[in-house]
Amino acid sequence: MTSKLTRAExxxxxxLARLELDDAEVDLFAGQLAEILGFASxxxxxxTNGVAPFAHAPAAELASRxxxxxxxxxxxxxxxxxxxAAPAAGLFKVPKxx
Amino acid sequence: MTPPALDRFATVSTLRTALDRGExxxxxxxxxTLDRIAADDGGLHAFQHVSAERALARAxxxxxxxxxxxxxxxxxxxLKDNLAVRGMITTAGSKILESYVSPFDATVVQKLEAAGxxxxxxxxxxxxxxxxxxxxxxxxxxxxxWAVDRIPGGSSGGSxxxxxxxFTPLALGxxxxxSIRQPAALCGVVGFKPTYGRVSRYGLVAFASSLDxxxxxxxxxxxxxxxxxxxxxxxPHDATxxxxxxxxxxxxxxxxxxxxxxxxxxxxxDTGVDPxxxxxxxxxxxxxxxxGARTLPIDLPHSSAGIPVYYLVATAEASSNLARFDGxxxxxxxxxxxxxxxxxxxxxxxxxxEVKRRIMLGTYALSAGYYDAxxxxxxxxxxxxxxxxxxxxxxxxxxxxxxxxxxxFRLGERTENPLQMYLADVFTVGAPLAGLPALSxxxxxxxxxxxxxxxxVGRAWDEGTLLRLGDAYERATPWTGMHPTVxx
Lengths: 98, 488
What we know:
The complex is a heterodimer of chains A (98) and B (488). Chain A has 98 residues and is mainly α. Helix content of chain A is 35%, strand content 0%. Chain A is flat. In chain B, 37% of the residues lie in helices and 12% in strands. Chain B has 16 helices and 11 strands. An 11-stranded mixed sheet of chain B has the order 1-3-2-4-6-5-10-11-9-7-8, sandwiched between helices. The longest helix of chain B has 21 residues. The two termini of chain B are 24 Å apart. Chains A and B meet through helix 1, helix 2 and helix 3 of A and helix 10, helix 11, helix 12, helix 13 and helix 14 of B.
């Protein structure tokens, strides 16, 4: 992949990523993403037949812990950080969903 | 009476000795630190925020306490600004978190304070730790104290500058593809990325969760060992954090006789390493041989795939982790009538160019039709990269590499070409992809007087051998004792 991505491809990815891009960014990313993906495509030449995908670090020793109730963070502390929240009601607020 | 000012480049060990002898106090050290930052950080921009009142209050408490002193009693520390401290702003270098105040402490913060450390403030980093120069910080880059027209490395650049410029003897960074080791190398200080799972990531702003690890930046290997002992350990808030024993002081014997050091010559020859870096690396190997270690050629046949694999896996994980920044629970929110427009505009306004680029790349690699060819393929090659190291460790104890292919480059030199910037990570991505510990120690200078780093990669959980080797090398060479001219 050496040429640019199409504008439509860039816009499709941006929609999946919930990112609004301006025209200049669409053009910039069309070129840059193609260049980076082209470079990354070198790995296609590596034979991975029968090789399992990496799942987690070999060192990872996933620990378990007792499932016991413990205090959560303070609701007011959390809501103080939330833009447009309704702390008195104990709610996050968002614009119209439907 | 004010105690005399201590050398601004004193190590943790030296400061602790002075404290224990009653020659100075936690408050005096804290005040000297704050004064030096006020005087000299204007031109360097190591710090994103300085928390002077909190630090002095904490130092006063430590001076009054009669409880047994912790291993970091009275020691000032700087934290990368992607680590949460309750009540302190945590921007992660991003406009989207410009005014975010963390409602909780990271586990490492709790452990540091329990050990007596004094948190001075937060350091500049690339936005969401994505970068190799700090130029992706939304709040302006840090500058290299050895040459202020050059980058300090990244993404933990501000932490490396804080230590190199004589502000704090200790800083924490986070390393996903080299973000502790690369800036440490470029600033002439020690940087250590522990084994994946050694340190809890609770309270670290997530970038790529299968790679992220917190670690120290210091002026000596012994200080890195001391800090790692403090921050290591299991944590109910992070299932990957393991409760392995973490005592490294006994490893620092200075004796590396018979230790087998593997050198992957092919990657060095194929990578376009700067000649000055290459000759410094070769000279370092001679020093190690002089200490009785043996160097052996090894092959890491998939190492050239490291950068492509890293940039596919890390961006895929980032695109998922950064989905949480949607203007609902924290951070910036854009005005909009409908929720979906609000999400898209919030992210448009809040994220910088590199973060958008990586989210796009990762979303692409995970999207229908491309998942198998990019993300899944990269995860299979990642298994081969890990297997290369496992094979190497059958015949050697440590792998040695330069930390970076070049010394610090100039500000602005690579910002127009993301791929060129990514290549700065060529020697550092291997260890995190395989989950292994890696240490960078200063090993000399280029003819332009820019620092160069020597990197050791070890077996999982074998931080002790890396520290032993790094400490022995440090004792045999003058490099960690050399400092830039700051405030003199």
